[in-house]
Amino acid sequence: MNQSPVETALSRAMIRWSLTKSTPVTETPRSWIFRVEQNGRNFAALKILKPDVSEEEGRGARLLQWYGGDGAATMFDMHGDTIFMEWLDGKTLGDAVRAGHDEEATIAIATVVGNLHRPRPDAPEGLMPLRQRFQALFDTDVRAWPHTARDLYARASGIALKLFDKPAAQVPLHGDLHHDNILSSDRGWLAIDPKGLIGDPAYEVANAFRNPQGATNLAADPRRIAQMADIFAARLGFNRKRILGYAAAHSGLSVCWDLAAGNPITTDLAVLPPLLAAYDRA
Fold it and tell me: Which Pfam families match (predicted)?
């Protein structure tokens, strides 16, 4: 009986890295995840990428390898479209927020960002420029937005252009850092699933403002927005207005992505107005 491509990739990975047992964990739109065992004792993860996302996921994998386990899950090796990495099964920071520990989660995000942005030699090549990541925001026809929200699009895209017009440091960026992409471990909180971008470090915390999933009312609370901006500015040394500008611009970008994919945009339509108000006040 012929094996499927994922079965073939799994079989080859088990041999290549001398693994002894595999257990399917999940299939996502981007990959298949397996928990594997080494010598019957230690757990690890295999992430087998789907062909249409291998370029973006490859950028993220190279960045994960560059982090060297500092603030992120450790990547042991990669061959073709298969990533062999540390197994993490702890709770996420999203779980912490949903359990009522939002301020502690924000501080933890700042700590993770500090670790990820620690200077390291030989940054990986081929990272996507942050300006390119925002192309969907600039290319979207405003008429795709609901009539009552088109002023929000104009503000978000205008802020993004203003941010990119001002020179800023260029550092490797995780690019999708939010509460449910940060997991607990015996080494502390660790990030997973980087996108592999390069650009202004202040962008790194933008996605946190509209997360975690299922906490729209919290994310739209002006007091929470102000507190997050204060914590990130104080602990990371980022300019507070740029933090809020990127948060608003990213929310607008997320609307454009969701409109293109046919997904609901209710979260960002709730979060974007108070983000813009906070940006104006900063």
Answer: APH_6_hur
